[in-house]
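JOB MANIFEST
job_type = single_chain_structure
chain_count = 1
residues = 157
[input]
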Amino acid sequence: MPKDIEKKLIGRREDVNLPDLKLKAINAKIDTGAYSSSIHCHQIEQVKVDGKKVLKFKVLDPEHDDYQRKTFTFHDFKTTKVKSSNGSTETRFLIKTNVEIFDKKYPTEFTLTDRSNMKCPILLGRKFIKQGFIVDVNKYNLASKGKQYKVQLMKGQ
């Protein structure tokens, strides 16, 4: 007998928290076509501190309401190749941090990129979605509206 799996319903856009970066209610696009997740950053640079590689960057733009003028530093990072929707491939830095939604934290990998021309500074892809979500493209901000819909699936679906 297959075990039922409970998944939370999210919309095409959700306001999420990034507690490790002290960001709250940042608008994220949920993209089932994207494999990985990305976050809008600028002034991204890899430097050496005490002989070790360190990644430094700023999140959001100065015009954004939640911009903090803070430079974030990550010691644990790597690079990865990302293929865009237009078919071009670029190398990006990748960090791991928590996304908080429905009052629960989900460890998520983010590539750092310039999303200044996009409506949402965060894109959450399939690697995030696979942690227990189903997307209803007709809805948005289900988590911030306090509507925690749960969907029962048969294992293997």
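[summary]
The chain has one domain: 12-140.
The longest strand covers residues 37-49.
exit_status = 0
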